[in-house]
Design a protein that fits this description.
alpha/beta, 5 helices, globular
Amino acid sequence: MRVAGTMAEDPLAQYADQLVYLCSAQASSQLIIVAQRKVETQIDALKLEHVKIDGMVEENKPARAAIWKKVDAKPGTYPIVLNMKTGDFWHGDDLQAPQRHARALLLAPTIAPLTAFAFLQNAIDADEFQAKLSAFIK
């Protein structure tokens, strides 16, 4: 992992062909904190070479804004994983959608709670996540 440095005129130019992980070290929302932990666990488990950008660091704000624009996410969306080689990305809203679905399953009387729990646990364990980021394995 490399921590982001100074920004160029195009704030994303220095990240060309890299895996970028945008996070917030100052997150106060429990959903963001949990989503970031899950993403970091996956990145570490898959041993993915990546650049971690803390969106709250002043010098990273231009890159943060460019990432939000590139993935069409609203400001304040964390975490974001962006494959700069292919343009594939996953962001906070996508990562939380399976969790919202799992909660709905938990409330459905005909669905076993274990089914919903398994769905929640595997929200970012998808083979797609691993397959699409395999080029970044150390």
